[in-house]
Structure formats: C-alpha cells, structure tokens
Design a protein that fits this description.
The chain has helices at 5-15, 28-34, 52-66, 78-90, 104-112, 124-138, 149-165, 180-192, 208-215, 240-247, 256-270, 280-285, 308-311, and strands spanning 24-26, 37-42, 71-74, 94-98, 116-119, 141-142, 171-175, 197-203, 250-254, 296-301. It has 319 residues and is of the alpha/beta class.
Length: 319
C-alpha cells in the first residue's frame, strides 16, 4: 500500500494535459543568501492554487471510472478545492467537510467549483469522521486528503517533474502536513535517484512527523498551532507514515517567525505569493546558519491560496 513505479506512471497518464508542469524557478539572491543553489518548484502556480489537484484528480479519476454517483472529502481548504475541481471535470457532485477555522478564501473557492460545503469541528479527525459518514450514507466515493495510495501517487508526479527538469539536484525540501505530499514526492525521488536526499519540513507547533520518527510509531498531537494552516494535521496517516520512514532522510522543524520571513523573501525576491504552508520548506533552506550550504536544493512551494486575514498576520521581518 505505497506508491510504486507503476502507480506513478498511471498517475502521470491520468494527469497529462489536466495539471500544469509547474516551473522550477531560480533566485540568485536567495541562493547567495543560503550559500546553496536553490530552485523553487512553484506549485503555488498550479491549477486550483496548490499541489493538491494532482492527488485529488488521480483519485477522482479512478472513482469516476468505477461509476460512483459523487465524491466526498474532508479538508482544511486546498484539498477541498482540488476535489471540487476534479469532480466538476468528471461531471459528478461533490460534498466537502471543512473545519470551522478554514480561511474563507479556500472554502469560497471550493464552493465556486461546485462543491456543497459543510463546516465541522476544528481538528482533522472530526471532519474525516463526518465525511466518511456521508460517504456511507450516500454511496459517494471518499477522497482522502492524504492517506491513500492514489493520492500519494498523484502528488508524486511533482518528484518526477523535479528530476526531469533538474537531474543534478541532490536535495529536495518538502513540507509535511498529513504526509501525502512528502510520501509521494519521496517515493518518486528515491525510486529514480536513491542518492538524492529528501528532507521533510514541518511547523514546530505541528511536529507530528518529528514525534512519530522519534518514537518509531504514529503519534497524535493533542493540538497543533501555526500560521501554516494547511499543515496542522494532528497525526501522519497510517499509510503515509511507513512511506516516510522508508524514503525520507531527515525531518526538521521551523517556527512561525521563520515561515513568515521566508514568505516575505519569496514575495520580495521571487515575486511569488504563497500561503504560509507553501513557504514552510523554504523557511528551512533560508534559516541561518544555512544548513544546506553547498548543495543543489529543490524546494516545493506547496500552495498559494493566501487568505486576506492571514496575510495581515505576516508582518515584515525586523519591522
């Protein structure tokens, strides 16, 4: 129950022509700052504004082929938009359960793609349970936000693109929420280039992967807090965790100040707007004393769906 070369090939075929092959952008200034050659995988420019469309479209495509009458999911926002877009593409209804804390920009976007939105609780287990109840009652196909082989394989196409565009890359930084993105990307990278290091980056206030690695088994945090609202899952998935343990070389944390500073650097130097979650991996590369100096580092900017209310919290560093 993990991504394979075959599942990654199938995902690439399903997504061909439907998602963007996002650019791998350079910044001489940021590279000089970090003492490394940095390139930024701009998934904030992806369809629906984040990497999530890859896994959602791969899963919904398979469910549509099975003839489900509709799909349902649980999401903090970006996955909701992606599933809604995919369902609209295949002409089937979509229901989405989101937390009451979801940024309005994300829930409004999912609604604009045709999804019926339901608010439920503030933590992932509450909305996941509600979505699974809806699936059981309606016969809709359930689209997990991360803990699913098809979802992971869809996200893994990012790793395929990275290596195709920059085979000399020796390190890849990937943010960690529930683990679907890093599990997919790490699988794709290690299957093709085992020597390339994969480093997971998570907010210090939501360090579920760090806790799981230290203990050797899944850990559920009692709470998670960070400006990176898309990375606040309380636990890795039962499927994503073993993939991360197998393929991810290192897991590190960054605090909210580092994330905000990276956000401003991306905006001012690269002219890219990300959401805080999207800047999380960059925050590690740009953290003094610059832990990846001398390396060739690809950084996944996972999303760009920035809510206006969140933007006001991103104060200018040192201002």
């Amino acid at each position: 129950m993990k991504p394979t070369a075959q599942s990654l090939n199938q995902a690439q075929q399903r997504l061909a022509g439907l998602v963007h092959h996002t650019p791998l952008l350079t910044s001489q200034g940021l590279s000089q700052m970090a003492g490394a050659e940095l390139r930024f995988k701009a998934e904030n420019l992806q369809r629906t504004g984040s990497f999530k469309i890859r896994g959602a479209l791969n899963k919904v495509s398979a469910l549509a082929a099975e003839g489900v009458p509709g799909v349902v999911t649980a999401s903090s926002g970006n996955h909701a938009q992606a599933v809604a877009w995919a369902a609209r593409h295949f002409g089937i209804p979509c229901r989405v359960v989101v937390p009451t804390t979801t940024p309005r920009a994300k829930s409004d976007a999912a609604r604009s793609y045709g999804a019926a939105i339901e608010f439920c609780g503030t933590v992932s287990r509450e909305r996941l349970a509600r979505a699974q109840t809806i699936a059981a009652e309606s016969g809709y196909g359930f689209v997990p936000p991360y803990d699913d082989v098809l979802v992971m394989s869809g996200q893994g196409t990012i790793g395929r693109e990275l290596l195709a565009d920059w085979p000399e890359c020796d390190s890849v930084l990937v943010p960690i929420g529930g683990g679907g993105l890093i599990a997919g990307v790490a699988s794709a990278i290690k299957l093709q280039s085992p020597a390339t290091r994969v480093i997971g980056v998570e907010p210090a206030g939501a360090a579920k992967a760090t806790a799981a690695r230290q203990s050797g088994h899944l850990q559920e945090l009692p709470a998670a807090t960070s400006i990176a609202d898309g990375l606040l899952a309380l636990s890795l998935g039962a499927l994503t965790f073993p993939v991360i343990e197998e393929h991810v070389d290192e897991i590190v944390t960054v605090d909210d100040h580092q994330i905000a500073e990276a956000w401003w650097l991306l905006a001012s130097r690269l002219k890219l707007i990300t959401e805080p979650s999207g800047a999380c991996a960059a925050a590690y590369a740009l953290t003094a004393p610059f832990p990846l100096a001398g390396r060739r580092v690809a950084i996944v900017l996972s999303g760009g769906n920035l809510d206006a209310a969140v933007a006001h919290t991103l104060t200018v560093p040192n201002a």
